[in-house]
Amino acid sequence: MDAVFLTFILMLSIFLGFELIYKVPATLHTPLMSGANAISGITVVGAIGLAGTGQHDIAQWLGAGAVALATINVVGGYMVTDRMLAMFKKRGK
Amino acid sequence: MGATALGIQLAYVISAALFIFGLKLLGSADTARKGNLLSAVGMLLAIVAALLDQGIVEFQWIMAGMLLGGVIGAGAARLVQMTSMPEMVALFNGFGGMASLLVGAAALGAGDNNTFILITIVLSILIGGLTFTGSLVAYGKLSERIGSGAVTFRGQQVVNSLLVMAILGSAVMFCLQPENSQWLYAIIALSLLFGVMAVIPIGGADMPVVISLLNSYSGLAACAAGFAIHNNILIVAGSLVGASGIILTQIMCKAMNRSLSNVLFSGFGGVTSSETVVEGEIKPISVEDAFYILEAASSVVIVPGYGMAVAQAQHVVKEFALLLEKNGCEVNFGIHPVAGRMPGHMNVLLAEADVPYDQLLEMDEVNPRMENVDVAIVIGANDVVNPAAREVESSPIYGMPVINVDKARTVFVLKRSMASGFAGIENPLFYKENTRMLFGDAKESIAGLVRELS
Question: What are the b/e assignments for B98-116, b being 16+ CB within 10 Å?
Fold first, then answer.
């Protein structure tokens, strides 16, 4: 039942994603991509749970590695997106 | 469910809402920055919620990982050049993929492994692994650390088919015998190898498609990892990213008039030779003569390509556009969807040079008004303005939507020499009656025009 519930969420969010992204103009595709890239760093949430078990087994080390990699994604992704978007200015401003 | 657990789940719901709203605001240049900020707040909330989980008894490794990742990420984000943005996005995608692979592998030790969980673990390792090495190869090609051409060899299809079968076989064996870790290692190794094999046959000109696709994969990998550890927020966020990457991939393919499978498997972007019979002659023009024509022009469209960025000419182009405007001329930029090395790359490069975004017109906006344009100036672009795409049925790019600069009254093409473009296709534009070639370094030529105008 759990699997069905999770698949249901998956289906709805894919449709939502399509609806949202189609409306983004071509001008903003690069920031969109790096912003989406930052969101894909959400893996950090899963990695945190695995890196903090205190069991000192291989799973914990893998989790800690995943935290580091996903954080690069999150921090770098959001910062560079902001840096790019700050450059977009309207005429006469 | 305890009060804390419930609180964490609610926090995930709120952060999912923030991601969605953030993406919605990214749909307009006025609100995009706020959207990105909202999305970042959503991420922060999700991370804080995850840290409150009662299963966490030890924080030092989490903090060490976050500190290390944060410093690397922040440093890269501040230092990267806008021209190198595609490489960096590729690299970040790869890290995201690797993180999902590690989470998938670590989830195996978390107990309760029914077949459904095992399948999702396999998927997160597989997608994560191929995203990682695929992105590294893409990074190498984009930064020209390795050759950017397509690498093809005899029997490539056979090798790849064997690889896919080996992956499927290992995946089945892993699900049947999860306690036998050799199948896990086999899947990891094969998926890493598969990422390399999938990206090497794709040529440099097709990289915008590859980056979009890898972007999508990094989201799907996070999504699969979410299934493996039963985490809703990973599934929601991952599938949003997956969907966005797929859409961008589709837009890029459409802009090149090619199917995704054609991009992925054909090894195009290497050498394509075609015999197009071109009539007419090349008519060069000097900077002075170009100036006289521009001085009288009342409407100018500039069509930049990646060559403009390579020559670092965007700043002088901006200055040039300002001077033309001062002269009472209307100046717009026509941006082809695949100009640059990733979707929207050219817009970012011009925004960096302070060109207002409402002056950047998409192909569909600029083409209908081309007949009323006095001068179209092509800077460092070639294939995206090639009229052969409309006129020559035998051309390899026939059917690809292009910016119809040849319909303007006069066309200036700034070009170093007569060499053909990335795709190696002859361009009849250069021989048209209304085309004038301004040979030389694009930056120098524009700087010359700026001197004349000021």
Answer: bbbbbbbbbbbbbeebeeb
